[in-house]
C-alpha cells in the first residue's frame, strides 16, 4: 500500500513538473535489469551469511518443519 501511495504521489508531481515516473527512479523498462539481480543475490548472500553465523554461535536453530494434523 505504501508503494502505491508513493507511486501516486510521484505520478501527480510528475504531471505538475512535466516529468515521467522514470525521472523519480522508477524506470519501467529497466526495472529488472542487472543491478536488480545483483541486489537480489547480494541480499540473499547477506541474510544467509547472517543466519549461518548465528547458527555457529548458537543463537539460531534451523528447526524442522512444523506440521499440524495427521
What do you see in this structure?
It is built from 2 helices and no strands. It is mainly alpha-helical and 70 residues long.
Short descriptors:
57% helix, 70 residues, single chain, 2 helices, mainly alpha
- Characterize the biggest β-sheet: none
Shape: elongated
Mean pLDDT over the residues: 86
User: Total number of β-strand segments?
Assistant: 0
What is the N-to-C succession of helices and strands? HH
Unreliably modeled segments: none
- Beta-strand percentage? under 5%
Task: Report the radius of gyration as a whole number of Å.
Answer: 20 Å
Compute the number of helices. 2
The proportion of residues forming helix, as a percent range, comes to 55-70%
Describe the structure concisely for a colleague:
The protein has helices at 2-17, 34-57. The chain is mostly helical and 70 residues long. 0% of the residues are buried.
Chart the SSEs and their pairings:
Elements: H1 2-17, H2 34-57
